[in-house]
Design a protein that fits this description.
Blueprint lengths: L2 H17 L8 H36 L2 E2 L2 E8 L2 H5 L6 E9 L2 E9 L2 E24 L2 E26 L3 E22 L4 E22 L2 E23 L2 E21 L1
Antiparallel strand pairs: 1-4, 2-3, 3-5, 4-5, 5-6, 6-7, 7-8, 8-9, 9-10
Helix pairs in contact: 1-2
Length: 264
């Protein structure tokens, strides 16, 4: 309810309370007149109550699809003092621009359970970032992370669910896009980590599902991708001391891809 429906409902309750007052006169003529007035007040109260319900119904219909958003976010933090004093901090730089025409979302949450869904019409995004460090624990240990992505979809949607607690849980997410074009490139390099991911493609229909099983910190993530009416090429590789991942996707007209990630 917003202010209009709440005001109608409150006013209806006040009128009903007024109409329900007992007849106080011993004169039958006055009592009859008071009865007619009370009936008319009750009719007004019922009208206001129905109006509140109608307004609330219209609010739900109108709020199903909300106007889209335009966001431009820029962030820079060089942390020069930290770099000069050999602290284990990163220098950051990023920019992100997103724009959508219409948006819709719903969420349902209970103890140990959550499910949510959202959809966006004309969903576009461009983002780029870089982060780097020189030192770790006062020792020379450089690491750099690069990321550049862009995408445009006529319609995109996501459904996600999770069950369990912080120590043991399972989650699943499914995403779908209609009329999508995208390009992505990600890389991370250090002495103990090598990671690279690149992809480009267009698709009439594109989808991805991801399932995660976490047991006391050991986590396995399985990702499957599919597309129809597409021309795509994707490859990813990641290796570090406590995590590895590999995946690929290649398709023309229709394509299937996979990713397997294990961390411990």
């Amino acid at each position: 309810m917003n202010g209009d429906s709440i005001a109608c409902q409150n006013l209806s309750l006040e009128y009903k309370a007024l109409a329900s007052r007992p007849l106080s006169s011993k004169d039958p003529t006055i009592n009859e007149r008071q009865y007619r007035i009370a009936k008319e007040i009750m009719d007004i109260a019922n009208y206001l109550s129905k109006s509140a319900s109608l307004i609330e119904s219209c609010e739900h219909k109108q709020s199903a699809w909300k106007p889209g958003k335009v966001n431009l976010i820029k962030y820079t933090n060089l942390n020069l003092v930290s770099q000069l004093t050999k602290q284990s901090r990163y220098s950051y730089g990023s920019i992100r621009y997103t724009k959508s025409f219409k948006e819709w979302n719903k969420n349902y949450t209970k103890p140990y359970f959550h499910v949510g869904a959202n959809a966006t019409l004309l969903d576009g995004e461009i983002k780029s970032s870089i982060s780097a460090r020189i030192w770790k624990n006062k020792k020379f240990d450089p690491r750099i992370v690069l990321n550049a992505e862009s995408s445009l979809a006529l319609l995109s949607s996501t459904v996600n669910a999770r069950i369990g607690n912080s120590k043991v849980y399972a989650s699943a997410r499914a995403t779908g896009q209609v009329g999508v074009a995208y390009a992505t490139c990600k890389a991370a390099f250090s002495r103990k980590e090598q990671s690279f991911e690149a992809g480009v493609g267009v698709a009439a229909l594109r989808g991805e599902t991801r399932c995660v099983l976490n047991i006391l910190g050991a986590k396995v993530t399985l990702t499957a991708q599919g597309s129809v009416g597409s021309a795509e090429a994707n490859f990813s590789y990641h290796f570090s001391s406590r995590e590895w991942e590999i995946g690929s996707k290649l398709g023309f007209i229709a394509g299937l891809g996979f990713k397997i990630n294990v961390s411990y």
